[in-house]
Amino acid sequence: MFHNLKLFLYYAFIQHLPHSRLMGFSNTIRVWYAAEILKIMPYDKQSVLEHNVYLSNAKETSIGHNCRINEHVFIQQAIIEDEVLIAPHVAILSVSHKHDRIDISIVDQGDTRPNPPRIKKGAWLGRNVVILPGVTIGEGAIVAAGAIVNRDVAAFTIVGGVPAKFIKKRT
Questions:
Q1: What pLDDT does residue 121 have?
Q2: What is the pTM of this model?
Q3: 18 with 25: CB under 8 angstroms?
């Protein structure tokens, strides 16, 4: 019950504070709220949590130090390590719809078990990236804008496309 009230306040007010380019204190309030009230990240003056970031129920999500999460990011559940950059309009998914049976409508089959993705230290997710359940993005990896990632990404590599494929190793 109390957790739902904290989420209500986040979704009703905190997430709608103006972009930090307009009012720098908005980011400070959002990061403080995520750290001290929702307890999903440490309070860190270097972190950025822009407006309209969806955090689902915020119970199975953790965000590390010095992360930059831009506007309109959708996070169902995830483990996000330190120094991660997430561009606008990224979707990080932890569940999907069951679709095994053809005798029952997909809408009536329910959801899969949560399988939160892991975004490792120093990774960068470009604009409009979609990360599917259970995927690990390796340390220092870059996911190009618009990619859909359906399998693990090795550390210090660049991937892109639909589905995301290896482009090159970072050197």
A1: 98
A2: 0.94
A3: no
Give pLDDT tens digits for 3-18.
999 999 999 999 999 9
Given a contact cutoff of 8 angstroms between Cβ atoms, the answer to whether 142 and 158 are in contact is yes
165: three-class secondary structure by DSSP: strand
Burial 29-58 (b: 16+ CB within 10 A, else e): ebbebbbebbebbbeeeebbbbbbbebbeb
Are 111 and 98 in contact, with CB atoms under 8 Å apart? yes
Q: Pick the catalytic residue: 19, 65, 72, 97?
A: 97
- Cis link prior to 163 (omega < 30° from 0)? yes
Residue 97 appears among annotated catalytic residues? yes
Q: Give all strands (DSSP E) within the chain, no chain letters.
A: 48-49, 62-63, 68-69, 74-75, 79-80, 85-86, 91-92, 118-119, 124-125, 130-131, 136-137, 142-143, 148-149, 157-160, 165-169
**Which residue is associated with the tokens 């991937």?**
159
Please choose, from the candidates 110, 75, 79, the residue with its C-alpha nearest in 3D space to the C-alpha of residue 96.
Answer: 110
